[in-house]
Amino acid sequence: MIYMEEIKKEPVTVGLILINIIVFLAVEFSGSSQNTIHMLDCGAAYTPMIIEGGEYYRLFTCMFLHFGIEHLLNNMLVLFVLGSRLERVIGKIKFLIIYLVGGLLGNVISVLVELKSMDFAVSAGASGAVFAVMGAMIYIVVRNKGWLGDLSARQILVMAFFSLYYGFTSTGVDNTAHVAGLVCGMMISILLYHPRGRRI
């Protein structure tokens, strides 16, 4: 009963996690999440296909695909920790907007950067959206004078630092989408979060 009550408090977070897990299992059963060609067939992002082929849907579908179980678990763990808290504070609809729009904008900016550098790579993952949630949390914690429930600004900043550090010191990581997602999450939360206003 207690578990069900907790789920009712953050249904969007739980729903997003379930969707990511279901998509991952579908990809695994139909091929392999670590097979680049199969991931492209499933909707992973690849700038030439998006721009030259007009396959703009990839900017969205890639947010629900992951390269391997570790990639999935890392993103879902951070989403569970931060998403549940953010959803309770800002409301279901606003939380979903931050997650989807922040992640989408992160992917768009990543594509623009790749077009400039001409260094193309197949990318997938909820990281940009998760970083958008993280960025929103940072802004809201600052607005709440350093605390949000049981999380402090320092704890969230440390989590953001190590997440970014891990990305920049690892290969095959779309760091542009991470940083862009973080910044976009902050910007969106500035527009949506009004402590004295009515929650959606």
From TrEMBL:
Transmembrane segments: 12-31, 56-83, 95-115, 121-142, 151-169, 175-193
InterPro entries reported in the protein's UniProt record: Peptidase_S54_rhomboid_dom (IPR022764), Rhomboid-like_sf (IPR035952), Rhomboid_protease_S54 (IPR050925)
One example of a Gene Ontology biological process annotation: proteolysis
Membrane-topology descriptor: Multi-pass membrane protein
Keyword list, A-Z: Hydrolase, Membrane, Protease, Transmembrane, Transmembrane helix
Pfam families for the chain: Rhomboid
Domain Peptidase S54 rhomboid: 54-193
UniProt superkingdom: Bacteria
Gene3D superfamilies from the UniProt entry: Rhomboid-like
One GO molecular-function entry: peptidase activity
Record family assignment: Belongs to the peptidase S54 family.
PANTHER family: PRESENILIN-ASSOCIATED RHOMBOID-LIKE PROTEIN, MITOCHONDRIAL (PTHR43731:SF14), RHOMBOID PROTEASE (PTHR43731)
Protein name (Swiss-Prot/TrEMBL): Rhomboid family intramembrane serine protease
Organism: Blautia intestinalis
